[in-house]
Specification:
Distance between the termini: 208 Å
Strand content: under 5%
Radius of gyration: 69 Å
Shape: rod-shaped
Length: 204
């Protein structure tokens, strides 16, 4: 925007208000010039920014690929070694863990048995006491129900054994008869000797 060039005479003739207006016009012109310059600079930067950004991304990708190539093989080897070592440790610890588990289970089982033993005995005693009247009643009923059967069985056994008993008695009597006769003969002889001795003593 063009401004009029004022001579010293013209400036002297200007009032204070005119001075203020002139300063305002100059300030506006300077501000507009700075704004235009800033817009041109920003547009230039925007045009250059995609190219710079693309170059930076390309450099970052190349660097990442190089780092991955450098670290890929050691990382893979470390992973394999770590997995193998972990598997060996797990296999070595498996028997120990199994023994510990068995010992813990046995200890818990023994402790439970010890703690439950008084309870079990008390329950057994209570059950026996509660069932004793029932057992006695059942035994009484069984005895009453079996009494006729027992008598019948006893009678049948006696009848079946009677011939055997008589035969045994007969055989015993026959076996003992010679001994009885011999004993009787010896007794008779002893008595006869005693009688003869007594009679002979009387006549002396």
């Amino acid at each position: 925007m063009a401004t009029e060039q004022m001579t010293p005479e013209t400036t002297e003739q200007m009032t204070p208000e005119m001075h203020k207006q002139q300063e305002a016009v100059q300030t506006g012109v300077e501000a507009q010039a700075e704004q235009t310059q800033g817009q041109e600079l920003a547009q230039q930067q925007e045009e250059e920014q995609p190219e710079v950004q693309a170059q930076a991304e390309l450099q970052g990708q190349e660097q990442a690929q190089q780092e991955a190539q450098q670290a890929g093989q050691p990382a893979g080897v470390a992973s394999v070694l770590g997995g193998t070592l972990q598997q060996q440790i797990a296999q070595a610890l498996q028997p120990v863990l199994r023994d510990i588990q068995q010992q813990m289970a046995q200890s818990v089982r023994q402790q439970m048995e010890q703690e439950l033993e008084p309870v079990r005995q008390e329950l057994h005693q209570q059950i026996d006491q509660a069932l004793e009247p029932v057992r006695q009643e059942l035994q009484k009923q069984i005895d009453q129900a079996l009494e006729p059967v027992q008598q019948e069985l006893h009678q049948q056994v006696d009848q079946a054994l009677e011939p055997v008993r008589q035969e045994l008695r007969k055989q015993i009597d026959q076996a003992l008869e010679p001994m009885r006769q011999e004993l009787q003969k010896q007794v008779d002889q002893v008595l006869q000797q005693e009688v003869e001795s007594a009679v002979g003593a009387l006549f002396r």
